[in-house]
Specification:
Elements (H helix, E strand, L loop, with lengths): L1 H24 L4 H12 L3 E2 H8 L7 H9 L3 E5 L7 E5 L1 H24 L2 H16 L4
Antiparallel strand pairs: 1-3, 2-3
Helix pairs in contact: 1-5, 2-4, 2-5
Amino acid sequence: MRPAIEEISFSYRAFTARPDRILDQRGLGRVRHRILYFVGRNPQISVNARLGNLGGSGQAPNAPLRQVIDMRMVAMNPSENDRRVRQRKLTAAGAALETGLTETQMNVLQSVFQQACAVAADGRHRVMLRPGKHGLE
């Protein structure tokens, strides 16, 4: 199992290196990319749903979320169905940054999958989903 742990660690470092450099140039950290990614994939996402996607406590993502709101990358609006629920969505600036960050990661994955056969890609998918499906943390 130790080689698998090391492979995952090195792969994740390579997967996040370019987005981390882009974020660092803006004075931002990786959690901001996660916020932008999940808000972008789930327009009008509520606070509770966002926390479910990001994991962690309710307080952990608050400062980074406030930062991207203050930078006008995420807009906050009340829900049409329930005015007490605040929903988030990406602004044009947030969408542009999220797209650029995520495209670098998609390019890495596309290159890796092109070099591997379809069977290997399918196996990777099944292996990587198992810990999350079984609540392993």
